[in-house]
Amino acid sequence: MSSVTVTLPDALRAFIDREVEAEGYANAAAYIRELVRRERDRVMLRALLMEGPDSGPPAAVDDEWFASVRATLRSRGGPAAP
Question: How far apart are CA 40 and CA 38, in angstroms?
Answer without folding.
Answer: 5
